[in-house]
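Our example pasted here:


***
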Amino acid sequence: MTEKDDWEREFDHTWARSAEHKEPSARARMLAARWKENPPDPAPFRAHPDAAGPRRSSWVSTAIVLGCAAAVIILLGYAQMRAPY
């Protein structure tokens, strides 16, 4: 047999996906056991909009990012100018 045949036989995904019974992951089993004794509180799909706090304007965020980028460029230029050759 060739090496390719060994590889295909070892990692036959179609055979694995066609299994009639699929065992849940370890995390799924752990959560199922935990929730059986102590079920989680119901939570909405999305949090209330005020829960996240006030949002900044997109212009403020853009100014902060561009200001940081400009500061890095200036700092790198200054460090290169001061470096001995």
Summary: The first helix runs from residue 3 to 10. The chain has a mean pLDDT of 81. Residues 57-85 form one domain.
